[in-house]
Amino acid sequence: MRLKVLGCGGGIGSDSHTTAMLLDEDILIDAGTGVGTLTLDDLLRIDHIFVTHAHLDHIAFIPFLVDTAGSLRDRPLIVHALPSTLACLQAHIFNWHIWPDFSCIPDAAHPYMRYEPVTVGEAVALGSRRITPLPACHIVPAVGFQLDSGQSSLVFTGDTTADDALWEAINQISNLRYLIIESAFSDAGQDIAARAGHFHPAMLANELNKLQHNAEIYITHLRQGEAEVAMREILAGVTRFSPRRLMSNQIFEF
């Protein structure tokens, strides 16, 4: 498997894009503004989008992707997410008010887009690749994903805060190689982080003590203006690992 980071910022501007990752050539893990860095040929190769949750910074470019590529494809784009996330997309985005309902365009029998619900702990097999939703704790229903090539795994937590169920699931992954985990605020914003269902460095340092594997750890979702401070706080607090900042265009092969 080959994962390319298209966007991993806590906002936009100055080359920062929100969360989106391209797995091989045909799968998106979230579809934030980072999708806008792809060419039309790249967009046409995407067959699946796995969505962690319904917040705009993770789904903003699904409507543009379907609108751009739908009529040029011979099969629907499949959106995989929790049932509650899919219901949110249907009710609030693809509702004919914000955007057309591409699940019935050009007609219900030949849609440009199809919804596929996922269940925590149940892997979706795409050839030899297995993508498994993992527990997450956010202010809306959310999941992370284990991406398993068969040789090794990468875990992306999505947006989450402290959650013992997440660590229990991660610690059962015997071939874990990479962990991408968020810290959306510095410690100065810990009150906001608590209300918004995000990590901040002190909390993240404490939670990483629950990780039983020797994985490479990368920090995502850092906010502009706080990223350097937050990384310093993370590095000062984490003693067992050496976390690194996730960067756009970074590539993982596993």
Account of the 3D structure:
The chain is α/β, with parallel strands linked by helices. It has a single domain (2-253), classed as Metallo-beta-lactamase, Chain A. It contains eight helices and 14 strands. The chain has helices spanning 40-45, 56-59, 62-69, 83-92, 164-171, 190-196, 201-208, 227-237; strands at 2-7, 20-23, 27-31, 48-50, 77-81, 113-117, 124-126, 129-135, 143-148, 153-156, 176-182, 216-220, 244-245, 251-253. A seven-stranded mixed beta sheet has the order 6-5-4-3-2-1-14. It has a seven-stranded mixed beta sheet with strand order 7-8-9-10-11-12-13, with helices on one face. A hairpin with a 4-residue loop joins β9 (143-148) and β10 (153-156). The radius of gyration is 18 Å and the shape is globular. The model has no long low-confidence stretch (mean pLDDT 97).
